Amino acid sequence: ERRALIELRSxxxxxxxxxxxxxAAAEAEAEVDGLWAExxxxxxxxxxxNLSWRKLGFVHEVIYSFAETYGRRLVSLRLIGxxxxxxxxxxxxNCLSLTSLSLASNRxxxxxxxxxxxxxxxxxxLLRNQITRLPDDIGxxxxxxxxxxxxxxxxxxxxxxxxxxxxxxxxxECNKLARMPETLSRMxxxxxxxxxxxxxxx
Length: 202
Hints:
Layout: H1 2-46, E1 48-50, H2 66-70, E2 76-78, H3 89-94, E3 100-102, E4 123-125, E5 146-148, E6 169-171, E7 191-193
Parallel strand pairs: 1-2, 2-3, 3-4, 4-5, 5-6, 6-7
């Protein structure tokens, strides 16, 4: 009897623990959904979706059909300090109206090739990630004026980088760049910061 009673208590304890964990998970999920919902509400009025420093770790799929859902196109996406490890290719495939993209202070090691579809981008902030390379067709982003990629792990830049002739400010300090592409000579940017790299030649 005693053994049976102990087993019964253990079972009830485990069930109660599982119930508490499920309730806590549901509350956390509801809180996350609330944060996204509030951000979408503001973005529907301003065109800017900002969920910086919320550490949610993912990109909500509603972003990909934002214009259809809310009747307004997204022009700015700010997910700074979001704990992103990957930028979904769907961002580059569906968010074609973006003029500003801020993904600083995340854990990104790479960027999808589809990012180069966002040809209306003017400002891109990728500071403090772990990016080792840029997409080969980065030069398609011909409207870019400001490009911030300091404190990453870039070892080289694509040859098409020199096509970004509208760039006014480029910050590439604290990377691992050893050489710059020959096409760089086409550029006329006012600010080019290459401090703290491993350059042996320009």
